[in-house]
From TrEMBL:
Active site: Y123, D172, H283
Organism classification: Bacteria, Bacillati, Actinomycetota, Actinomycetes, Actinomycetales
NCBIfam families assigned: xth (TIGR00633)
Keywords from the UniProt entry: Hydrolase, Magnesium, Manganese, Metal-binding
GO biological process: base-excision repair
SUPFAM superfamilies with a match to the protein in the record: DNase I-like
Domain Endonuclease/exonuclease/phosphatase, first and last residues per copy: 5-283
Cofactor binding note of this UniProt entry: Probably binds two magnesium or manganese ions per subunit.
Single GO term (MF): double-stranded DNA 3'-5' DNA exonuclease activity
Name the UniProt record assigns to this protein: Exodeoxyribonuclease III
Species per Swiss-Prot/TrEMBL record: Mobiluncus curtisii
Amino acid sequence: MKVTTVNVNGVRAAFRKGFGDWLENDDSDLLCLQEVRATPQDTQDLFGPAWDVHVWPCRVKGRAGVALGARRDSDWEIGQLTEGLPPDLYAEVGGEPDVDSGRWLEAAIHGPQGTTFTLVSAYLHSGELRTEKQEQKIAFLHRVGERVQQLSARAMAGAGSDTPQEALICGDFNIVRTARDIKNWKPNHNKTSGVMDEEIAFLDAWMADTLSGSKRLPCVDVGRALAGDTDGPYTWWSWRGKAYDNNAGWRLDYHMATPGLAGQAQSAAVYRAPAYDARFTDHAPVTVAYDFPA
């Protein structure tokens, strides 16, 4: 099973810049997309009949939007969908704010041998220091953390059973974890949103760095576990200047899996376009191959 996550930075623009050509040469079974910024019908039309694509748009026009897709000729299909985090996580504020819409899409994925697992496409807030946007980011991180714990508890309860409930959360988290995840750590650490200790603490509370997981943590950072102790691989580069040519990037895009699924991860690949002007988005697709079901 191959799963790819990519922030397309506007799916219509991505297709104009070559995303469709990339898809034709890719063999992923499942897709998680962020910053779709298009209607469900427009998105499905772009993908055509080869893909079954489901979009949850943001209620704020021109922002966010997440999607899940399954290749129709693969062994995997999308089942029941859940848009957004559970409503009870917003009880104290009277419901989900519009800025949180189009950022979390869950689906039950059905595959061979009766296998079912939960797949999430997640787009966490980018934030902006000393503004309301950063407050929205932190509030969303708290709620995502609660959902991660819920999914982890469900996976643990099903461990060893005939119907384990593993979970895979993929997407643009808009946060690096360590100096290995950003080329220019020192000038950004605790000075730029996405590189703040307060933000990093959330990810460190969610993810271990080894495929076997940790008894203390609910999930595994699959990309880091497979890459090991090395710089990058980066998944986002600014459009400005020579950031791409100099590989001055950030690792913002993740596969976060419950340990039972993470342990089946075989390999990871970050697609890097051959040249600046060959990019169809400012992010790189991150693909992981899982031997699942084993």
